[in-house]
Amino acid sequence: MLRIFFHILAVVALTALTQLGGIAWALSRLFRRPLLAFGGLYVGLAILAAWIAPLVGRTALSCFEQGPLQVQSWFYCATNRTYVTPELKASLQEVAASVAAAHPGTQTLVLDAGFPFLTGFPLLPHLSHDDGEKGDLALFYRDASGTFLAGQTRSPLGYFAFEPGPSDCPDSWISLRWDLAPVQRLWKPYTLDRHRTGLLIQTLVEDRRISKIFVEPHLRKTLGLTSEKIRFQGCRAARHDDHIHLQL
Questions:
Q1: Which of 5, 75, 85, 221 is buried deepest, with most CB atoms within 10 A?
Q2: Cα–Cα distances in Å, from 191 out to 109, 126, 163?
Q3: Ranges under pLDDT 50 in the chain
């Protein structure tokens, strides 16, 4: 019974994390060497997804191309979290190219986007990201000397390195609004590149395809941004002063 419970838990966890991993885990139980089979099945399903997803309106952001738009970590590629609609992909590529044209060498980094299949399938821990029309971008940073740090983020995955600022949200257990105060000291001591980050958000604002951008109110004020497209995501959702959320 305990073994069955473990395998059920593994299927649920891998499905939540990667969408396809649960299928690979379940099928791998049919083989004599299940762990080896799981690795092969998972890679095969991921490759197959990259071929099939365009047929249902999703396409993967490239994890190998070198250019102004890049995926921040191999983790997002390995867990199938880089899928977007062709329209959002085109928008991200053009926005990144525009920022790089203004500041050569700038790399716009994509964090979580979406899974390859099934509109409405949640991309945890996000409250949205379930249709290929949403994505997160990393902030830009400088080191202590003021030098721009191309392709780098304060935390390993680009999330949870919060910019300090006031909040009007009350403390609540029923919320994804984590402060994670104990781990803040673990992140790299970079400072926000206000100019590039503000330019990125303003370029997103000017893209007619983008309908909403979520950042914390204090960060919006710090960057001097005023567009009605830039909104507060609400107190139930995660903080957005560690990344930029955008959607069609």
A1: 85
A2: 17, 26, 9
A3: none
Angle at 30 between CA 24 and CA 32, to 5 degrees: 110
pTM of the model: 0.93
Closest CA to 112 of 97, 128, 100: 128
Distance of alpha carbon 243 from its chain centroid, rounded?
A: 8
The string of pLDDT tens digits covering residues 102-146 is 999 999 999 999 999 999 999 998 888 999 999 999 999 999 999
Half-sphere exposure (CA, 13 Å, Cβ side) for 233? 22
Largest CA distance in the chain: 61
d(CA 72, CA 158): 7
Burial class (CB in 10 A: 0-12, 13-18, 19+), 37: middle
Q: Is the separation of the CB atoms in 196 and 148 below 8 Å?
A: yes
